Amino acid sequence: MTDAALDLPDAVRPFAFLRGTWRGEGVGGFPTLDADFAFGEEVSFTCEGKPVLVFTSRSWAVDDGRPLARQSGFWRPQPDGSLEVVLSVAAGLVEVFYGGLVEGPAGSHVEITSDVIVHTATAKQVATDHRLYAVRGGKLMYAMEMATADTALAPHLSAALDRVT
Known about the structure:
The protein is mostly beta strands.
C-alpha cells in the first residue's frame, strides 16, 4: 500500500491509484457515426474522507475546443471489494454500474457495467455502458463500450490521460 492510500477509508484504499486529476486526448466512434473523432478530456477522482470516490469528467473537441460531454458521480467501494457507481451524464442520463477490481497479467484494472440507465425524454437511448479503467505507464487508460436499442455493444470511447495533480 502506498503512503497516499494511508489517509483513505479502508474501502477506498484499493482504488487509490485512480486519485488525482488526469488530462489528455482520446478517440471516439460508434457504428452509427460517419467517422471517428478526437477529443480532449479531464477526469478527476477525489476522496473527501467518506468511503466514496467523487468522479468528474469533462471533454471537448480537439479541433475547435467546443464542449462535448460532462459527467459526475460517486464510486462507492463496498466492504466485499465490489464497486457501485452512480453517474449523472449531462446528456440526460443517470446510470448505476456494478463491478470492481480485476487482477490481470499487467496489474489491476477496474471493470464496471451498467445495471440501470434512466433517460430524460430527449436523451439518446443508451441500453448498456461497459467501462474499463487502469493506470499503465503513469497514464490513466480507459475504454468504454456502449449499446443502444438498435446497436449491439461496440467500442465508443478510449483515452490515455496524464496525471496533472
